[in-house]
Design a protein that fits this description.
427 residues; alpha+beta; 3-stranded antiparallel β-sheet; 8-stranded mixed β-sheet; elongated; 21% strand
């Protein structure tokens, strides 16, 4: 939820944010009108209520015709008070709904436009030229081919058990995922994050509070019998962890690293990302989450991005960092950076991490504040991926060898019992 005071004092900034996102700026005027109507209704209610209280004393002291006239007026006032309260309540309900539909105000400098209008901030590492290494006759294997040869990925039995876009990670595949996530958690703890194993089912108010029941609500699994939602990221549970609390941030940000299973319906997705384990319905992830002051939120955003890049360096993956365009941010984010690794089989970049600065948007919806000398105020929330199942895709493809085996990056070897190479398994 955006700051209503900002909307009242600087509506042009909110309208501009709506435009660069591709959203309707007229919603700002609708909110302002409802806010004015709500405040007018409350003022009218208070005015009539005050007169009603004063009249009550006069009725008690009056007699005869004067008392009858005052009783008539008292009845009129009672009806007026009731109508004014109903109007204010109706305006407040409509205002709450309209405000929830306005996305977070983007940070200055975010590129305008949609999915393809991102700005590339930097490239790190050089993609391997596999044809030059192994000869022009060499055929680059994709992660599924490699994973099946290693007996690491089984999508056929995953589909048999659960349907399309489910899978088993078997043998070294399961170990590789555990290695990635454990390495990520180790680095998070070393950086001062509190490790968390989070719930994967949350209440509607938590899912709504984090902004995941907006435009992409069709990608969220809901358990109707229990009125609970399966999370697509531990960000949701971590955001709800301090709901309706007042935090002490005098000692610096509160940082959590959540390890959880994640579930996404991926409604409408199709094409090349559906082969193998690139875009699936269930996966595991270590997610960073920070609560901090508004003033420190942009610096914290850079810190989270730096932590992500450290993990990519450990995995020895060539990648690029992009500044995501406003129209591709999602409603909660004011700015988002993605790190995309090179995918040799498709000769393109594949998103592995995202980190978002949500400023006070989620905290306002969830009632999370901090105590300051001037009172309490909303805090800022930030999130960022540190490792996820999808990393296996980039690892297998970028570190493949000529015979179908895969070199293990040095930083992951301690988590795999010292293995230097993953070798194909005989059928």
């Amino acid at each position: 939820m955006i700051d209503l005071r900002l909307l009242r004092e600087n509506p042009d900034a909110v309208r501009a944010s709506q435009r660069v996102r591709g959203d309707d700026p007229a919603l700002v005027d609708q909110v302002l009108e409802l806010d004015s109507r709500r405040r007018s209704g409350l003022a009218r209610f208070e005015e009539l209520r005050a007169e009603q209280k004063g009249l009550g004393k006069q009725v008690a002291q009056a007699q005869g015709a004067d008392k009858q006239a005052l009783l008539v007026r008292a009845k009129e006032l009672a009806e007026g008070v009731k109508a004014a309260q109903a109007d204010a309540d109706d305006a407040a309900a409509q205002l709450d709904d309209a405000v929830m539909r306005i996305a977070n105000v983007v940070v200055d400098g975010v590129p305008a436009g949609g999915e393809d209008d991102y700005a590339v901030l930097r490239h790190v590492g050089t993609p391997r030229d596999l044809a030059a290494e192994y000869g022009p006759a060499f055929t680059v294997r994709d992660h599924l081919d490699l994973g099946e040869r290693l007996a690491a990925i089984d999508t056929e039995r995953g589909a048999k058990v659960s349907g399309a876009r489910f899978y088993f990670l078997t043998g070294v595949g399961a170990r590789l995922e555990l290695a990635l996530l454990t390495a990520a958690m180790d680095r998070a703890v070393a950086a001062g994050f509190t490790p968390m194993i989070t719930p994967t089912l949350v209440r509607p108010e938590v899912m709504r509070g984090t902004g995941f029941l907006g435009a992409h609500a069709d990608e969220v699994y809901r358990l109707e019998a229990d009125d609970l939602y399966l999370v697509g990221t531990s960000e949701v549970a971590l955001a709800g962890y301090h709901a309706d609390e007042v935090l002490d941030l005098s000692g610096g940000p509160r940082r959590y690293a959540g390890w959880s299973a994640c579930y996404r319906r991926e409604a409408g997705s199709h094409g090349r990302d559906t082969r193998g384990i690139i875009r699936v319905h269930q996966f595991h992830k270590v997610e960073m989450f920070s609560w901090t002051t508004v003033e420190d939120s942009e610096a914290e955003h850079e810190r989270l991005l730096a932590f992500e890049e450290e993990m990519l360096a450990l995995a020895e993956l060539p990648y690029r960092v992009i500044d995501v365009a406003a129209g591709d941010l999602g409603s909660s984010a004011a700015r988002k950076y993605d790190c995309e690794a090179w995918l040799p089989s498709q000769q393109r970049w594949l998103e592995l991490t995202s980190t978002s600065n949500c400023t006070t948007f989620q905290a306002r919806r969830l009632g999370v504040r901090e105590r300051t000398d001037a009172g309490t105020r909303a805090v800022a929330t930030l999130n960022g991926t540190l490792a996820t199942t999808r990393w296996i895709v980039a690892l297998l493809e970028n570190h493949q060898l000529e015979d179908g085996s895969v070199r293990v990056p040095e930083g992951l070897r301690p988590y795999l019992g010292g293995l230097e190479v993953l070798s194909p398994v005989a059928a």
